[in-house]
């Protein structure tokens, strides 16, 4: 029964450390079946990825449901699953803000307001929209930063997953990294975005099936939500672990060290809108929709599912606070003392409740989460590289076939750079923090540039470029200031009690504001573009195609309204 | 000629197979108890969770089985 995993691990040199759980033959079979299916999908869809429109945009044939599930799934990587479960253990229910206010309003805004402009302009990427609206300068800045950061983030995700698999299951790091990345490279290179999307939908459902048992059994063990809260209060001695808003009046009143203004304006209005409406990793999925109505419904459907994700990510972290007989610690302390770290809370809870078969399903869910995130990263990377860097600046007149070939090779290159990053992080863990900070540098100002471009006809090419550059420089400058002088946090985050997450929110807010101000000022100093050139790109200069829904309840705005009401109710319930 | 395989067909097949494997494991455990059972093992989660996947997987496989093109 235990021979098979032993043989597989023997393929990769390296000692197997002490581990928390053993997988038996049934678990291995469950994992192997999953790998077989995802590869089969890649080979099956190879014939449907012959033109660049098919390879990079999935032929723009996806339904609202498929695009919507893929939209959420591409974001649900291993850091998202295991990292936020760990944050829930560390900070309590406050971590839910990153799923609700940090996602839902932005997703609804994308569907209702922004999607028509992305869709009717027929762009292939977010940098592609910037090119049409602001010219090549803004496109180049955005494309290069996105391509670079995407593969680096993919590598960090890879390393995070491999590390947890090593600690919990004793899997060799090389084994986890290479097997999963080669599989992703194969199915994305073969079937392009369509293959990535099909697998992401499958992975999303699998994540739910594999992880849902933990909160169900956890709530049964804890005796229900009320007893769970009481037990957390007993174990932690702080009521703020189960309240989302009531402790946000001051930075020192809650375990996360954040203030409501940072959550609402920094996270809810800037970081969240920046990520969900301008990060091409997620926007690409929606652009693959088969018509405008599907493109508008996809983020709304995604928002409905995103709102439910805390049930399988945050709740296990809270249950762990109540039922685990030992305490989890930070990563560095875990390495030094041999204890388990916060990031291992989800696998630990899987091991607690799942026997043979179900444990394999849970581990498959974690692997699926990693693979969906990585496939999202590499497919977006290959599209931006091919369309917005290679095709725009290096080789403008190549054939369609050549660009498809470039996209396939780029997928492998993207995976290889990700693998390289994973090994780099293994030897210099601090790189992980730097890269995550770097990623946040670009998101907030990019949102300022895109939203002004879509809603304000007067924004000019020079305004867009200099605004984006100034916003990014502000984010870098603020980060460097606090990095060199930690006491500067009192100015950047408005309080000496603010902690890292609060700092991120305020840095994003200031960089977005600088971007908007510089864009407006420079735009007024430079000649406006003729309105005729802005058709299909800007609100007020573009006739939005009318959608004819048979019934009122089929309208995207009705669904968005229903999701918004549910969002408000949930925040009040867990206030 | 048959129509192209739907993503929901792939999902149905995968969950049907998982349902069979996990339910079978749960039934096997009734007569061969685990040496180190997980918490709440008495609820026999593999049987009902596997059964649920079996039923859902089977229905999706049948519903989205590729039809012949006319």
Automatic annotation (TrEMBL), chain A:
Any one Gene Ontology molecular-function term assigned to this protein's record: D-glucose:sodium symporter activity
The keyword Nuclease is annotated on this UniProt entry: no
Signal peptide: none
UniProt-listed Pfam families: SSF
Entry GO terms, CC: plasma membrane
InterPro entries: Na/Glc_symporter_sf (IPR038377), Na/solute_symporter (IPR001734), Na/solute_symporter_CS (IPR018212)
Coiled coil, from the record: none
TM helices/strands, residue ranges: 20-45, 65-86, 98-120, 140-162, 168-189, 201-220, 263-287, 308-330, 350-371, 406-425, 437-456, 463-482, 509-526, 557-574
Subcellular location per the Swiss-Prot or TrEMBL entry: Membrane
Keywords, comma-separated and alphabetical: Membrane, Transmembrane, Transmembrane helix
Domain of life, source organism: Bacteria
Topology relative to the membrane: Multi-pass membrane protein
Similarity comment text for this entry: Belongs to the sodium:solute symporter (SSF) (TC 2.A.21) family.
Name under which the protein is recorded: SSS family solute:Na+ symporter
TrEMBL record, chain B:
Transmembrane region(s): 7-27, 47-65
This protein's UniProt keywords: Membrane, Transmembrane, Transmembrane helix
Keyword Transmembrane helix: yes
Source domain of life: Bacteria
Protein name: Uncharacterized protein
